[in-house]
Write a structure and sequence with these properties.
The chain is α/β, with parallel strands linked by helices. It has 10 helices and 10 strands. The chain binds ligand T3D.
């Protein structure tokens, strides 16, 4: 029997998805895109899931596009027509980013090894990124004559400012997990042996929190990036009105006043 391209595991309300093409460092083929998208859809529509962890099987997180995939790799035959990479991005990577950024639950990237090209930006699209000390992030695009995709042009300057974003993207150098955490590209770098436990603890904590408020926080922060302060304040009022009408807010305040742990159920 062939191994699934995405492994799934459940622990309480946490679903872990592991990219599973270790021999090719979990690089993306069309089939891996299809499998990951299907698992993200399944997690999004399963009310028992309150947090998703994305990681890689084997020694890598994800090496981006599979450059040996004949549907995207340039045809070496003289005079062969170039492949339409715009089509690849519009059909696969852009929908993947949109799916991740609109998940109805928080998503954690547990970066277990190298994250290169689209694999690096796949991780950075997640809400929290925790990486093993031996992991690294490489904006590998310019090395093969491409520009950052999978949200990289949008994410990088927002995460680390345009000076660092341009340095990271233009040079394409390997950035250690430690350095990535130091400059604010990711949330946390931990010792390799602690990655799984740290990601599980973070996921379990998020799964017990008010999911709608967490997701609305992601959305509000993204939306505020292209607003002036006045518009952001108005948007905060609009969202807070919505949160204030939800059961989780009532539960949170009641639990606080009763000095007990809250039990959040909205999703
Ligand atoms: O469709 C489009 O092209 C547009 C979309 C673009 C999105 C992108 O992601 S563009 C960027 C694509 N990714 C890369 O350029 C990264 C290429 N890989 C590397 O630079 C290195 O492999 C790493 C720095 C990631 C890791 O280096 P290292 O020394 O730890 O491992 P390795 O020996 O290079 O790789 C191990 C195996 O994985 C090797 O296979 P082999 O020789 O053992 O059979 C290698 O070929 C394979 N592998 C690694 N990355 C890819 C890959 N195979 C296919 N595609 C890959 N991206």
């Amino acid at each position: 029997m062939t191994e699934p391209l995405v492994l799934t595991a459940n622990a309480g309300a946490v679903r872990t998805l592991s990219l599973n093409r270790p021999a090719a460092l979990n690089s993306f083929t069309t089939q891996l895109h299809e499998a990951l998208m299907a698992e993200l859809e399944a997690a999004a529509s399963d009310a028992s899931v309150r947090c998703v962890v994305l990681t890689g099987a084997g020694r890598a997180f994800c090496a981006g596009q599979d450059l040996a995939d004949p549907s995207v790799a340039p045809d070496p035959t003289p005079g062969a027509a170039p492949k339409d990479l715009g089509h690849v991005i519009s059909n696969w990577y852009a929908p993947l980013v949109a799916r991740l950024r609109s998940m109805p639950v928080p998503v954690i990237a547990a970066v277990n090894g190298v994250a290169a090209g689209a694999g690096a930006n796949l991780a950075l699209c997640c809400d929290l990124v925790v990486a093993a000390r031996s992991a690294s992030f490489i904006q590998a695009f310019t090395k093969i004559g491409l520009v950052p995709d999978t949200g990289g042009t949008w994410l990088l300057p927002r995460l680390v400012g345009s000076a660092r974003a341009l340095g990271i993207a233009m040079l394409g150098d390997k950035l250690s997990a430690e350095e990535a955490a130091r400059i604010g590209l990711i949330w946390q770098c931990v010792d390799d042996a602690e990655l799984a436990g740290t990601a599980a603890a973070l996921a379990s904590k998020l799964a017990g929190m008010p999911t709608r408020a967490l997701v609305a926080t992601r959305e509000a922060m993204a939306a505020a990036q292209h607003m002036d302060l006045g518009a952001a304040l108005a948007e905060e009022a609009r969202i807070q009105r919505e949160m204030g009408n939800a059961n989780d807010y009532r539960e949170g305040v009641e639990a606080f006043r009763a000095k007990r742990a809250p039990v959040f159920k909205d999703r």
